Amino acid sequence: MYLQNVLKVLLVVICSTSGVAYSEENTAPKMFYIDVFQIAPGTEGAFEEASAKFKAAAGQVEGFPAYGVFSNAIGNSGQYSFGSGFGSFGELAIQRQLFAEVYKPEEVERLVGLIQKSVVSSNSFIVVQRIDLSNPAPDSDTLPEVVLAISIDVDRNKTAQFEDYLRSVVEATKATDPGTTWSTYQPGLGARGIWGVRVGMKWKDLDSQPKPILQRLIEHFGNRKGEKIFASGQDAINNIESNVERVRVDLSHFSAAN
User: Fold this and answer.
1) How deeply is 250 buried, as exposed, middle or buried, from its count of CB atoms within 10 A (0-12, 13-18, 19+)?
2) How far apart, in whole angstroms, are the C-alpha atoms of residue 1 and residue 194?
3) How far does CA 160 lie from the centroid of its chain?
4) What angle do CA 253, 257, 258 make, to 5 degrees?
5) If DSSP codes are grouped into helix, strand and coil, which group holds residue 22?
6) What is the pLDDT of residue 97?
């Protein structure tokens, strides 16, 4: 049961996945609150100490919501992301002021000082899981080592066009390359129109490439229609960025047992 809780959180996010993801029958939360912190060079130790203390405090509060933590594995080493699933804003509210509930005032002051010392900037936003626009992998007892996180800036006037494109990609992938899996997240409050695609994997999986999207579309829909669908999708996209994140089980909270 513990490992299943871990998997549900990481695939927010999640986390996630050529490794693991939600099934369509899963009743996991469909919204995720994401905190992204940019850390000053040389202060990662201070930030991780405070994060570890936050995890320890969460383990002492009955029913505290699970969350997953990710740090950049390639590129910007000073970025940490925290992701927590929730079904209502009432559930989300109980995650605030955790330090004050568990630690004495002097320890709270010390931990807050560590955070203030290390955090250069932060950004919070909400994303909505879109199972209908994903090709999630089957449940697994194997945790991903890393997550390929793809951020897609979609023209806000072409959101419906982009969603139609994704539906076609899902259909073509299931027909021609079902082993390629991912989870899609629609932007919510504060996400500035950025869609997310997340793929959980092992390090070695980064050495291989899935079948190109255009090839999947052509194989399934034929040359003319496949190329038209692909062009429509590209027309709706302003920019795409990607990075690889390391799954930080040591800083994540999954249940009182972890």
Assistant:
1) exposed
2) 33
3) 22
4) 40
5) coil
6) 67
CA atoms within 13 Å, Cβ hemisphere of 54 = 24
Rounded CA gap, 84 and 169, in Å?
A: 28
Tokens standing for residue 43: 């202060």
Q: Compute CA 193 distance to the chain's CA centroid, rounded to the nearest angstrom.
A: 16
Going along the chain from its start, the domains and CATH numbers come out as 1-258 (3.30.70.100)
Residue keyed to tokens 């490439």: 209
Asked whether the CA dihedral 199, 204, 208, 211 is positive or negative, the reply is negative
142-167 tens-digit pLDDT: 778 899 999 999 999 999 999 999 99
Q: Residue 91: exposed, middle, or buried by beta-carbon count in 10 A (0-12, 13-18, 19+)?
A: middle
For 196-207, what is each residue's pLDDT tens digit?
999 988 899 888
At position 89, the amino acid (one-letter code) is F
Residue type, 247: V
- Euclidean distance between CA atoms 241 and 97, whole angstroms: 33
